[in-house]
Amino acid sequence: MAKLPFLxxxxxxxxxxxxxxxxxxxxxFKQNTTPSGNFHVTVHSNIHGQxxxxxGNLYVVNETSNDHFTTNNQQFENTFNLSIRVISxxxxxxxxxxxxxxxxxxxxxxxxxxISVFDTECRG
Length: 124
Hints:
Blueprint: E1 2-12, E2 17-33, E3 39-53, E4 58-71, E5 76-88, E6 95-105, E7 111-122
């Protein structure tokens, strides 16, 4: 399991607030060999974070994702698209953050991941 920190800069499309979200992605992956000799990889991610907007509003992120793919090598990289709910701790509107996680596992089994925001959506 890998525990990786992240920092996201996002805009709440509902109220125009700029938010910095600081958190951790916990990634657990499992590889099984297929009959053809490839590797079926299952990835389970937990994303936890919190942030404060430039209008003083507090937000939290708690999201779980499950993905899978097949590769021909035990070292791999893959990109996953996620929709992450950003929940206000007060009266500010909630919103949805569309992001990508780029996951890399090298020959030593070391895991790295980056998270990139590509869009936000007002969810009130």
